[in-house]
Amino acid sequence: MAVKIRLQRHGKKNFAFFHIVVADSRAPRDGKFIEQLGSYNPNTNPATIILDGEKALKWLGVGAQPTLTARRILSYEGVLLRKHLAQGVAKGALTQAEADAKFAAWKAQKDEKVAAKKTGIKNDALAKAQAAKKAEAAVNEARAKAIAEKKAQAEEAARQASEEAAAAAEPVAEEPAEAPAE
After folding, report:
1. Which helix (H) or strand (E) holds 119?
2. pTM surpassing 0.70?
3. Does domain 3-94 sit in CATH 3.30.1320.10?
4. pLDDT value at 172 more than 60
5. From CA 36, how far away is CA 10, in angstroms rounded?
6. pLDDT at residue 98 in the model
7. Which residue ranges make up each domain of the chain?
8. For residues 59 and 3, is the Cβ–Cβ distance under 8 A?
């Protein structure tokens, strides 16, 4: 029986998440499985991966073949590196302490990268929010300026109209006609 480590689709249309399972290669994608190793949610940024590394390592050790996507997830989580280091320990190329130190160094570096990505995403979101706030303030200021100009023009027009009405209401004193010169 050929055993595969693969993804089992769940969720709704256009919003899928996946279970990472060990299944017979002849079983349907979403059908019967032997054991569930974890889950993968690509809808978050960065993608959320929950994986039991010990179980995955055990299944890789007995010959389970991961699919391409499952292989990438296992590699991202360090399971394939641990398998590689375990093979080195079994061959005597390095000791278990050296293998553990190499894996710990790799894990620390990976965690640092993930943390940097998360802070970068957070900082980008804050920068976008601040830029949007500044743009909105500029638009509001321009609108306020336009409204003030319109109001000033309306007041000026009303003042001119009242002056014209006042001038029209005042009686015009006629000057006496000059007598023709003799």
Report:
1. helix 96-169
2. no
3. yes
4. no
5. 13
6. 92
7. 3-94, 95-164
8. yes
